[in-house]
Structures are given as structure tokens and as C-alpha cells.
Amino acid sequence: MANLEQILETNNVKPTAMRLLVLQFLLNKKVAVSLTNVEAYFDNSERTTLYRTLKTFVESGIAHQIDDGTGITKYALCEEHCNCEIDTDLHLHFHCNNCNETICLTEHKIPHINLPKGFTAENVNLVVKGVCDKCSAK
Description:
With 138 residues, the protein is an alpha+beta fold.
């Protein structure tokens, strides 16, 4: 639990019991999760509390949001030393059309995109859709 507290404190987030539990949940996941996934796991917790926890994690740089085209926002932990900046730290996401899981492909960085004069990027999201390795092997 000490490492979890340290992760939160390093990101200027007060380590409450719920934040520690949600952080542990996210650390155990290999795929991005939705608020509904988190809510199902913590079935005795309020949806608002879970949403605020995820929002706090995103705002503090502990996690990032993913728009995978399904209409449901997904959340995944950021890598250590991640700053989620458009020019330096964005990675590819993969959404499997078969199992409906979304996976961060952090080793595949999105290259800087030079926009025309007068254009300012506020968000970049690159999602590849197809069949993941687990589903391909079946």
C-alpha cells in the first residue's frame, strides 16, 4: 500500500481509501476500463465517487482518458514520467472489434503532426481497430 500512497502523493493527490483501491484496480488491469467496469468491481461504491476519483487521476496525470470510438470513455494508467503532452508523449491505442477491449500500445508513439498555420491541437487520439492477439489466436 505504501507504493500506492507514494504514487498518489507524487502526483499531489491525497491518498484516500477509495483512491488507493481504484489505483490498485487500475494497476491490475492490462486494458483500459470504463466507469461502468470500475463501478461493477466496486459494487458497493457510489458512481459519483468513482467518477470523481477517475477524473482526479486524469487531472493529476496518473491516468489518461481514451476515446476509442465506442462512445464510452475508457481510462488507463499513465506510464511513469508520462506528461500526456501532445508534442512529446502520446501513444497509439488498439481497440479489438471482437472482444471490445482497448489496449494502450505505449511503445508505439504518435509522431508530432505539423498543423497548418492558425491551427492549434488540443487533443490527439489515434485508435487502430481490428482483432487483438488474444482473439487472433483463438
